[in-house]
Amino acid sequence: MPTTRLDTFRRGDLRFDVSDDGPLDGPVVVLLHGFPGSRRTWDAVTPLLTTAGLRVVSFDQRGYSPGARPLRRRDYRAADVVGDVIALLDALEVGRVHLVGHDWGGFVAWRMAATARERLTGMTVLSTPHPQAMLRSLLSSAQGVQSLYMGFFQLPWVPEALLRPRLARLLMASGLPADAAREYQRFLSGPHALRGALNWYRGMWLPDRRRGKAAPDTIGVDTTYIWGNGDQALGRRAAELTGRHVDAGYRFVELDENHWLPERAAARVAREVITALRPDHSGADAGR
Questions:
Q1: In the predicted model, what is the mean pLDDT of residues 99-120?
Q2: If you average pLDDT over residues 257-274, what whole number do you get?
Q3: Proportion of the chain above pLDDT 70, given as a percent
Q4: Which of 72, 83, 126, 181 could bond 102 through an S-S bridge, CB–CB 3.0 to 4.6 Å?
Q5: What b/e string do you get for 93-132 counting C-beta neighbours within 10 Å, with b at 16 or more?
Q6: Among 71, 120, 128, CA closest to 99
Q7: Average of pLDDT values for 52-64?
Q8: 193 near 63, Cβ under 8 Å?
Q9: Residue 287: its pLDDT value, please?
Q10: How far apart are CA 211 and CA 251, in angstroms?
Q11: Is residue 146 very low, low, confident or very high in pLDDT (cuts 50, 70, 90)?
Q12: Distance separating alpha carbons of residues 215 and 218, to the nearest angstrom
């Protein structure tokens, strides 16, 4: 049984900042934030989960933690960010966890389920469809138009220059609550933080010859997928195709919400995580 909290962990030269809450002997849930958040993304979700007896761990991912901001885009490949999560689990000295990911954190969850399923008891993915469903939707829906901003983010320096003074305003316009939008802009004003955050878009799809085996098109991990039907970035077609890529227990939860589910629908997110972990549990402890 673990007896100490984790506040940081290292992977090579990188040092990651961690939040570790709830009973040390509870089932472990790891929360992965996306762009442009941080572990603060989960501020409203975490206490609902810990009240239900879960040990909840979140961390500022690669590019976000001040001690883990490599400048090269090739340091943000899928294998690198999945490796960071595995290093966290090793530092926690836990074998398997329930993984929760939003936005890019959802991509990491899908990738980890495909390449390291032995470390997962299950997962809950918010907003982000399975990568293959996303690719298929680009050819069969308006998803290509919705994803044009990803092409803009490939440019060097220009996205940083344009976003830095405007980020909070743009996030509020997209429906993110104002307090979260201002916090994310403050956090990403640190040295190299915005560059690190944008490098996820620049490096994630780069080929990685260090890994010889491609990830399978379907995963064998019990999955809850939560999608907001007002999501401006990730459309319905990809959401509906996602279930085809899960060869295990699967639940699709559609909410009348936008992209920012952890911040705007914390009670429902927590309830679905608790239900995934404890199917006989109503999730009442997480609110209505």
A1: 97
A2: 98
A3: 93
A4: 126
A5: ebeebbbbbbbbbbbbbbbbbbbbeebbbbbbbbbbbbbb
A6: 120
A7: 98
A8: yes
A9: 45
A10: 31
A11: confident
A12: 9
Residue type, 133: A
Residues written for the chain: 288
Q: How far is CA 195 from CA 41, 68, 176, 178, in A?
A: 19, 12, 21, 23
What is the chain written as a DSSP string? ---S--SEEEETTEEEEEEEES-TTSPEEEEE--TT--GGGGTTTHHHHHHTT-EEEEE--TTTSTT-----GGGG-HHHHHHHHHHHHHHHT-S-EEEEEETHHHHHHHHHHHH-GGGEEEEEEESPPPHHHHHHHHTTSTHHHHTHHHHHTTSSSHHHHHHTTTHHHHHHHTT--HHHHHHHHHHTTSTTHHHHHHHHHHHTTS--TT--SPPPSSB-S-EEEEEETT-SSS-HHHHHHGGGGB-S-EEEEEES--S-HHHH-HHHHHHHHHHHH-TT---GGG--
- What residues contact residue 120 under an 8 Å CB cut-off, 6+ apart? 96, 97, 98, 99, 112, 113, 221
CA angle 161, 67, 64 (to 5 degrees): 45
Strands 250-255 and 223-228: parallel
Q: With cut-offs at 50, 70 and 90, classify the pLDDT of residue 182.
A: very high
The two tokens of residue 117 are 């399923």
Encoded tokens for 86: 């595995």
Assess contact for 162 and 148: CB atoms under 8 A: no
Q: Distance between CA atoms of 71 and 111, rounded to whole angstroms?
A: 23
Q: Could you give the CA distance from residue 137 to residue 245 in angstroms, rounded to a whole number?
A: 13
- Mean pLDDT check: name the lowest of 28-42, 100-114, 126-140: 126-140
Domains of the chain: 8-205+217-286 (3.40.50.1820)
